[in-house]
Amino acid sequence: MTPAFAYWVDRLDPFLVRFSGNFGIRYYGFAYALGFLAAAWLLQRYHRAGLSLLPSDRIADFMVAAVLGVVVGGRIGSYFLYDGWRSFGTDPLAILRVWEGGMASHGGMIGVILAVAWFARSAGIPFLHLADLVASAAPAGLFFGRVANFINGELWGRPTRVPWAVIFPRSAPADEPGLLVPRHPSQLYEAALEGALLLAYMQWRLWRSDAVRARPGRLAGEFLVLYASVRIACEAFREPDAPLILGLSRGTFYSVFMVAFGLFLWRRRGEPLRGPGP
Known about the structure:
The chain is mainly alpha-helical. It has helices spanning 27-48, 59-81, 105-123, 127-152, 186-208, 211-214, 218-235, 250-267, and strands at residues 8-9, 15-20, 23-26, 166-167, 182-183. It is globular and about 65 Å long.
């Protein structure tokens, strides 16, 4: 058995640039910026390849709506889905402090869905088509976000003795600050599966098939099913960060609904689009 002192200790600075005290540019915010830039770049590529009905000059407008959907949905989702609301009586402004972390991926996805629905309606673009495009780009943001979680030393995994385990100082109980145990770097597992692997798959599906034209909503459905599936798998290695629901972690419980909605979209037979296509 590997002794505890042989494990790497996560003492990474959460600031990319620290100006003074607790003020600066955090990796967490930088990760979100990279995710949005990657999505905008992919949407431009889709347009140039003739795969997208989203005009090039409207991509920036859409990205503004998407950013608001992710940030507002992610923060509200974290607040209500993970019991943050319990502190409302003593700290009602906590919901506004996005820079302190506390963003729920499930809430962010709901926010993006609402943003896509609003923008698609206002721009006259089929909702399922725009949802397919967004779903194919979303894993890039998930990848950067999970790497930022690791740098922040948050959302750590369950105790383990595998050789690649990591000690996260913040994981020690407040009343036992010296009790540090090696844990799964579950943030990196999620970055690899929810981010890198899912991005590769979605890009393969978009570029190597005619699903975006022939079966609107199919790619979005596949994304939801696959994301929820790998999230459930990763939850087996992640320390629950809130009380269980029906014996399931919050991430697993909410992902079940994503699977159901994804299967609905996957099985749905809509009308083929007239316009984009390889």
